Predict the 3D structure of the following.
Amino acid sequence: MRFDFTITLDDYKVALKLHRKRKLSRQLLPWIWRLLFLISLVLFVVGSISKNTEVLEQAMVLAAWSLCATVAFPILPFALTRRGYRQMFPPARSGRTSTIEIDDQRIVEENPGSEEVRLPWTGVMGFAQNDRVTLIYINACRFFLFPTSALSPTQRAELGDLVARYVVKR
């Protein structure tokens, strides 16, 4: 099967959201800083009650770092998402339309004027799909991305069959 597609910023955002949902650690990371901030407040109270200056100092340092992270980390993805999307289309690339060809032997992604990636099925590390985007993982953090709407229902069934045959659960 062979199909052309164009990735929009919204597709890219949905893909990153789907990518984050695949691992529990990626879902819990934003909450760790808030938890550390609460722990630092408890340590501050305990250090104040026991008049232990070492605990107070450590609680203040932990509170400062965790407060910075609590504020910065929710803002950071907005900038990084747009930057990552722009990096998908380097100046040498002639257009935003890509082509993927999937068969029994390999997956070939062609980006006009930029690159062509050939990947045998043995190199596929994982697969994720929802109603908006499909991700075919090259490694833990790199993936081929294309809109699920680019596939017809028969192509979607064929892709599901190929993934069931060749992608090994790791």
In short: Helices lie at 9-21, 24-50, 53-87, 153-166.
